[in-house]
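In the laboratory, one determines a bound structure by crystallizing the protein with its ligand and collecting diffraction data. In a computational setting the workflow is compressed into a single prediction: the sequence and the ligand go in, and a structural description comes out. We illustrate the idea with UFG.
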Amino acid sequence: MYEEMGRKLAAGGRQELTTKLRVLVTGGAGYIGSIAVEMLRRAGFEISILDDCSTGHSESIPSGTRFIKGSLLNPADIADSLAGCDAVMHFAGKSLVGESVEKPELYWSVNVTGTRNLLDQMRVARISKIVFSSSAAVYGEPNVIPILETSSTNPTNPYGATKLAIDEMLSAETQSHGIAAASLRYFNVAGALKTDRGWLAERHSPESHLIPNVLRSSTTNPIKVFGTDWPTVDGTCIRDYVHVVDLIDAHIKTLDSLVFDTHQIFNLGSGKGYSVREVIQAVSFARGSEVPTIDSSRRAGDPAVLISDISKAESVLGWKPERDLNVMVTDTLSSFEL
Ligand code: UFG
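The predicted complex, in structure-token form:
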């Protein structure tokens, strides 16, 4: 079924790509958004960026790119950034699970109200295509592994709840207003992209993600392994890591496969799981020295195992992740060194 759908959608989309589309990238100064900007430019798209630079970095923006430093909470900024655009890739938003527990109101405001404002302004500007950064956090603690797009959604923190609310908002918007939308549910994104302006990579402050933290570990600052008594082979949590370049490749393929009146949902991962200890081993190999670790208690809210089923993205989008965990680790390491 997916194969047939894939052929139909891709054929329809490609006709439109013969003209040069202008894409608004919200959050285009952030880690994933800036890599999207770079890859969209390389693929021949025109770009506009909307980013408030609250967590993004304006230096990541290529010179000559249309950039509106503004907020999703300000409809005038959104209207300005949408001028001349044909489609939107929506990355902007708050994305820290821990922070979302402390400040849920911030997440409901920026993520949900911000997206509501974006959709309202898109309607005013008659722009009807949107690809949205959703998250595996919508699934919560899964009952079945691997996780399918049809698996039950039960977010365990406000971050995941806001991503799910936006997915639902997009479904309603396609039904009421006929737009073409896709939600891409990311598993664990890692890696970096080298450009002629240097590496585009994760630069969160504070950094909570495993791979950059393992790469920074030292004898005076050993990586904490959050939980060694999980019901897994080596007692540590298992996650599904996807290289950011493969992730953005899926976004570009999704743009080519949007269908009016339809909200499509795709999991984006690798379909494979690695334990925390396996990630540490991969980093030890890349660094050429043992990574100092310290066993710690479980982190609140962590599910034991998250692994995606990516067969829908593979067959409908014709997408396949090509970069494995070792590439994610070595690219992140290179981005630190240069
Ligand atoms: N971990 C450690 N030590 C650290 C950091 C992480 O042991 O210093 C462990 C975590 O406990 C977890 C694994 O490494 O088991 C991965 O943790 P990350 O923080 O890198 O990523 P998460 O799996 O917590 O989060 C990811 C995305 C979120 C998304 C979530 C979905 O980054 O945006 O998956 O559950 F919400």
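The first strand starts at residue 22 and ends at 26. Keep in mind that any predicted model is a hypothesis to be tested, not a measurement.
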